[in-house]
Amino acid sequence: MAKSQQTFNKSEKEKKRLKKRELKAKKKEERKANAVKGAKLEDMLVYVDENGQLTDTPPDPTKKIKVDAESIVLGIPKKEEMEEESKEKQGKVSFFDTSKGFGFIIDSTTQEKYFVHVSGLIDQIGENDKVSFELEKGLKGMNAVRVKKI
After folding, report:
1. Superfamily of domain 89-149
2. Among 18, 103, 106, 143, which residue has the fewest nearby CB atoms (within 10 Å)?
3. pLDDT (tens digit, 9 = 90+) per residue, 68-108?
4. Residue 35: per-residue pLDDT
5. What are the transmembrane regions (predicted)?
């Protein structure tokens, strides 16, 4: 007599496939049984409260704020409307290596450190010198340029 062509692995895969099909059919039947026919619109609505959270209760009309539609600015404000920062800043040289040609300046108002390169110098500077400078965007952040000794 010949051996059956059905291996153990094939029969296991077939069992899994049939079980999956049965589970899918059960879930479909449950969904049909639990489906609400003729549900009201009010039951399906979701509201947003004053904090931006989703709730099923309508918001309190006393907390409603009247917003003027013309006061809403869409997009980026024009450059003229933006406040102009003072171009020239003052600070102190915290470190400067003359052999390598770079250093750092600490802004006197914000205490932020800015990189300075010898190509951005107007006057010769050294450590602990008080300087005035302007900022430009560099590859790794803001760089001090047009650096003058005070």
Report:
1. Nucleic acid-binding proteins (2.40.50.140)
2. 18
3. 998 888 887 676 654 555 588 999 999 999 999 999 999 99
4. 72
5. none
Listed residue (118, 122, 120, 114) closest to 93, CA to CA: 114
- Is 57 a residue whose pLDDT tops 70? yes
Q: Where are the domains of the chain?
A: 89-149
Overall pTM > 0.85: no
Given a contact cutoff of 8 angstroms between Cβ atoms, the answer to whether 56 and 46 are in contact is yes
Instruction: Tell which residue, 38, 36, 43, 68, has the closest CA to residue 58.
Output: 43
CA angle (97, 100, 102) in 5-degree steps: 60
- Number of Cβ within 10 Å of residue 148's Cβ equals 13
SS3 117: strand
